[in-house]
Amino acid sequence: MKKFITITICCLVIFSTKGQQLGKETWKKIDHEVMQLVITNENIQSELESLLFGAKNDTLLNVLKRYKYFHLYVKGDSDCQTLEFRLSNYPYKSENLIGFFVLKEYLVFVYQELPDFLISVGHKRKFSYIEHKLGDFVMREDDTPCWIIGYRKSQFKVLHYPSKR
């Protein structure tokens, strides 16, 4: 029996000591193109929609309405992948960005690895957002809701759900 183990730790700490400059604050428009992907299996699409949007919790449903995008970070090996879905209001560009797909009314940006249920449709779409920097630090959303799902042999297992804190 294979167990799913995932540990996610995120931390950004910015300290300023007397006389030390953190750097100039800048705002810059970022434009980029992203490969469009599609889910190859309707059952997988239905199951993902159920896991992400099937909440009975009014608080979580209201939180979902405040965001436009998901960022999906995929990690794993040939036997099992961990899918980390994070809500966002920005279509961030990253060196590990593979593509995006549509899930309900949300655009989901895929990073690091491509799960076997996604394929490219062969064309790209343009996105833009405003990047906020303080010196060398890129300021991004903090503490957005996150779902962590284990994916193995076309089966999903919820490892973390936003309402479970």
What does this structure look like?
The chain is mainly beta and about 160 residues long. The protein is about 10% helix and about 45% strand. It is built from 2 helices and 9 strands. The protein has helices spanning about 40-55, 60-65, and strands at about 25-40, 70-75, 80-90, 95-105, 105-110, 120-135, 135-140, 145-150, 155-160. The strands form 2 sheets. It has a 6-stranded mixed sheet, with helices on one face. Strand 6 (about 120-135) and strand 7 form a beta hairpin. The chain is globular. The relative contact order is 0.28. The model is unreliable at about 1-15 (pLDDT under 50).
Distance between the amino and carboxyl termini: 27 Å
Radius of gyration computed on alpha carbons: 17 Å
Percent of residues in helices:
10-25%
Q: Would you list the SSEs in sequence order as H and E?
A: EHHEEEEEEEE
Are there runs of 5+ residues with pLDDT below 50, and where?
1-17
Number of alpha- plus pi-helical segments: 2
Major sheet size, sense and barrel closure: 6 strands, mixed
Basic shape:
globular
Quickly give the structural class.
mainly beta
Biggest sheet strand order reads 4-5-2-3-8-9
Average of per-residue pLDDT values? 83
Number of distinct beta strands: 9
What proportion strand? Answer: over 45%
Characterize this entry briefly.
This protein is mostly beta strands.
What's the arrangement of secondary structure elements?
Elements: E1 25-39, H1 42-53, H2 58-65, E2 69-76, E3 81-88, E4 97-103, E5 106-111, E6 118-134, E7 137-139, E8 146-152, E9 155-160
Parallel strand pairs: 2-5
Antiparallel strand pairs: 1-6, 2-3, 3-8, 4-5, 6-7, 8-9
